[in-house]
Structures are given as structure tokens and as C-alpha cells.
Design goal:
62 residues; 2 helices; 0% strand
Length: 62
């Protein structure tokens, strides 16, 4: 993970309670960065088992 600090909107998504969450934003806005930090947050602060985390991303190249 990088040394970049999440902005207010990213922090809100990262700290969202353990529940389904959709992050919808344009290219280059930090979606992958936010998802990475959210996964770490869920594991660290909510003891979520990584096997119970599903992350799906979509790209037109897929």
C-alpha cells in the first residue's frame, strides 16, 4: 500500500461498516486504492475473514 492519504469520500467508503458496498467513480479517481484500504480495514478492525471478502471490478477491456 502507498503512503497516499485517502480523501474524505474515500475514507467514508473505507470505514463503511461490514456490508455490501458499491464504489462507482470515474477513471483515475482512486477506486482500486480505496478498495485495497477497505479490505485491510475490514480485516484489521472488524476481524473479517479474507475468505469472506468478494471484490469485483469491471473494465471494458475484460
Amino acid at each position: 500500500m502507498s503512503d497516499i492519504t485517502p480523501n474524505k469520500q474515500q475514507r467514508k467508503a473505507i470505514e463503511h461498516p461490514p456490508a455490501p458496498l458499491m464504489i462507482l467513480a470515474g477513471a483515475g479517481t482512486g477506486k482500486t486504492f480505496t478498495l485495497e484500504h477497505r479490505i485491510v480495514y475490514l480485516i484489521k478492525y472488524y476481524q473479517v475473514n479474507p475468505a469472506n471478502i468478494l471484490t469485483i471490478t469491471y473494465t471494458e477491456k475484460a
